[in-house]
Specification:
- Chain B: This is LamG-like jellyroll fold domain-containing protein.
- The complex is a heterodimer of chains A (182) and B (520).
- Chain A is an all-alpha fold and 182 residues long.
- Helices cover 73% and strands 0% of the residues of chain A.
- In chain A, helix 2 crosses helix 3, helix 3 crosses helix 4 and helix 4 runs antiparallel to helix 5.
- The longest helix of chain A has 25 residues.
- By secondary structure, chain B is an alpha+beta fold.
- In chain B, strands 1, 2, 3, 4, 5, 6, 7, 8, 9, 10 and 11 form an eleven-stranded mixed beta sheet that branches.
- In chain B, strand 10 and strand 11 form a beta hairpin.
- Classes of the chains: A mainly alpha (182), B alpha+beta (520).
Chain lengths: 182, 520
């Protein structure tokens, strides 16, 4: 028989896991910013989720989930960085980034929907670059050889496409405040 | 203050892994000195994660099918059932069964876009590459081929066969369009591929069937020879030049002027000559390899060495060539197709079916281990694509494999619990990309008990190292190349290798980086 307190504990853990799920894209973004490699970042995400589950009790609902989960994610990412010794930003910079007050947006699902619409507005070349990068996990040198252009032009295309998409999503958020009810 | 545009470019480059050391230092100093810069960085990071999440969710949809609505498939943590299964797997099942979050089955990503290749490199003789190199049998994507010497034969997917003689630069544009910037080519165009076109500057050479040669020397000098059938010149053609050339005719175009000449087949490579040269090259490689192989057989600590030559077909037995090896360590080939290896005359085994494997047995235990194999990966369709597994289920068991995303992994069981923590393991960064499918690679992994570390090597170069926390001796026992024994675990997912192997060695000592570089 589960005791009442263990039920509360399970309930609390489920809630914390729910927050993780809700903010998965932002957490992934934070991890990717430290580890610019999709597969490795996925591993760190998984390990972070395990720790979040294990330590759920130490998180107090109502306090900043972003700050709490980023501490764990940063710790796990640093472990991976130290184990693999790849080039990324220095630990000092990662520390500064992790302690910057920065809350997660509360409208992830809406932004994902809007993003899909914005992706369809990209020029074909930019769309291909973004798909190669995010879906097929290619890096600019590979994309350059797949598309028959220079690495430099791929870098520019990706950077501009991201700026366009970010602004497009922001514009649509601003012009459609009721979207969450759709 | 900082330059906002510059900051955005640097952030973008960092996310795409193309930041130089100087740029990284610049980005770091911007981030350290400004809270505003850090907030911009974090906003961009949020968005980067959003893009990746959207791509993972839409992963079931091929990007070519633009009009298709992205399926709203549940991603990893959105599906409670999967979440529960994942957790159970993490705590109870252990590392080898850990599902990979990147590739839950419903969002399996496309690793090999179908429109990638335009031609097959069917022959490469005596070639020196400039920039990106390819090997025989490999699919050639769109882009530039540049060689400083040698001869290539390209089989375009349209059916056109092109022989390219170096020094040459040829840009592959589609299966029936290429740009020749320098060098000589001959093209044989079968009827279904009529219309095959080669560009040079603003000149378009369009084949109307069936065989022509083209030579470009410098920027201003181009000749077109028709050996058979007809060729049409289009685009910027000097005035008073015949637009259609027929069998036996040729034209020299130089500095905007054209001169009719007669076609000269002998100034282009002779197909029979190429075959002979290829065969000579194969012989020479075989000879050189045999010498190295003889030396390797006597290397200290070598316990198992399969060269895949002289497979005994009636018994399907692969002799263990390690000097002093007993017959009971020979390999039993189950399934596997005998195929050619790194070059025509080298023998290899092809692994494709879920049953395919080479099973052998070695005895004892060893504090250190080195594994080496020449492999050609044809695809990575599974979460685990086994290179070797040994002594499954026992403390000291070893698994050596590639994962779906092309990372090389080794795991050494350090205790008998079925838990993630029971393994000493090392994962490399991605070392096999879809562009490497069909390419021969030298893979090696060292478990070095003396230095308490593990190392991975690709083509003789170290690609990863990590600590060996617990120095559990490696258990030698029943081993499978390209597969795993499934009797041991009922829920065993399929993890057979897809590709070829033409050399394999197992040493009971840690080879040095120099020794591994020398094997390459």
């Amino acid at each position: 028989m589960p005791t009442p307190s263990s039920i509360d504990e399970n309930d609390h853990t489920t809630k914390v896991q729910g927050l993780f799920i809700q903010h998965q894209p932002e957490i992934r973004g934070f991890v990717l910013a430290m580890i610019p490699n999709f597969s490795l970042a996925d591993d760190v995400m998984q390990e972070t989720f395990l720790i979040v589950t294990k330590k759920a009790a130490s998180f107090e609902i109502g306090t900043s989930f972003a700050a709490w989960v980023k501490t764990i994610a940063r710790y796990k990412a640093l472990e991976a960085i130290r184990a693999r010794k790849f080039d990324t930003l220095s630990e000092e910079v990662l520390e500064a980034l992790g302690s910057e007050p920065h809350e997660f947006a509360g409208d992830t699902d809406e932004r994902l929907v809007l993003l899909r619409g914005c992706l369809d507005q990209l020029a074909p070349q930019a769309r291909r670059s973004i798909d190669y990068r995010y879906q097929n996990e290619n890096l600019p040198p590979q994309i350059a050889s797949l598309m028959g252009c220079t690495v430099q032009s791929v870098n520019v295309t990706l950077s501009r496409a991201r700026t366009f998409l970010r602004e497009c999503v922001q514009r649509r958020m601003a012009s459609n405040p009721n979207l969450s009810h759709v | 203050m900082f330059d906002g545009d510059r900051l955005e470019r640097l952030i973008s480059a960092h996310f795409d892994g193309v930041l130089t050391a100087e740029e990284r230092a610049e980005l770091e100093s911007m981030l350290l000195s400004s809270s505003k810069a850090r907030r911009i960085f974090l906003d961009h990071a949020d968005f980067h994660g959003l893009l990746r999440d959207q791509a993972m969710q839409a992963g079931g949809v091929r990007w070519l099918e633009k009009k298709a609505e992205p399926r709203r498939t549940p991603s990893l943590f959105r599906n409670p059932a999967w979440l529960a299964a994942g957790l159970a797997a993490c705590v109870a099942v252990g590392w080898w069964f850990l599902p990979k979050p990147a590739t839950p089955p419903e969002t399996a990503r496309i690793t090999h876009p179908a429109d990638d290749g335009v031609a097959l490199l069917s022959m490469a003789v005596d070639v020196e590459w400039n920039g990106r190199s390819f090997s025989q049998g490999e699919a050639l994507p769109k882009g530039l081929l540049s060689i400083s010497k040698g001869t290539l034969r390209l089989d375009f997917y349209s059916g056109v066969r092109v022989v390219l003689e170096g020094p040459a630069r040829l840009e592959l544009l589609t299966a029936d369009l290429a740009r020749l910037d320098e060098g000589k080519l001959t093209a044989k165009v079968p009827p279904p591929a009529q219309g095959f076109t080669v560009l040079n500057g603003n000149l378009r050479v369009v084949d109307r069937g069936t065989q022509f040669g083209m030579s470009v020397n410098g920027t201003e000098n181009c000749t077109v020879h028709v050996f058979d059938g007809e060729v049409e010149l289009q685009g910027e053609v000097p005035e008073a030049t015949a637009r259609n050339l027929f069998e036996g005719e040729a034209v020299l175009i130089n500095a905007g002027k054209s001169t009719p000449i007669s076609a000269d087949r002998r100034s282009f490579a002779d197909p029979a000559g190429i075959l002979q040269a290829a065969s000579r090259e194969s012989d020479a490689r075989m000879e050189k390899w045999r010498e190295q192989s003889e030396v390797l057989r006597k290397a200290s600590g070598l316990l198992a060495y399969f060269d895949f030559e002289e497979l005994d077909l009636p018994t399907m037995t692969l002799p263990n060539r390690a000097s002093g090896a007993s017959a009971d360590s020979n390999g039993s080939v189950i399934g596997c197709e005998p195929l050619s290896g790194r070059w025509d005359r080298k023998a290899a085994l092809g692994f494709a079916k879920t049953s395919d494997r080479v099973r052998f047995r070695v005895h004892g235990a060893s504090p250190s281990l080195t594994l080496m194999a020449w492999v050609r990966v044809d695809s990575l369709p599974l979460d685990h694509n086994a290179l070797l597994s040994m002594a499954p289920g026992e403390v000291g068991e070893v698994h050596w494999k590639l994962d779906r995303s092309g990372r090389m992994l080794v795991g050494l069981r350090a205790d008998d619990r079925q838990e993630y923590q029971s393994w000493e393991r090392l994962e490399s960064p991605q070392v096999v990309t879809p562009n490497d499918f069909g390419r021969w690679m030298h893979l090696a992994t060292v478990i070095d008990s003396e230095h308490a570390e593990m190392r991975h090597y690709v083509n003789g170069r170290q690609v990863a190292d990590g600590p060996l926390g617990r120095r559990t001796p490696v258990k030698l026992g029943t081993a499978n190349l390209g597969n795993i024994d499934s009797t041991w675990w009922n829920t065993q997912p399929v993890r057979n290798f897809n590709g070829r192997m033409d050399e394999f060695a197992l040493f009971t000592r840690a080879l040095s980086s120099e020794e591994i570089a020398a094997m390459r």
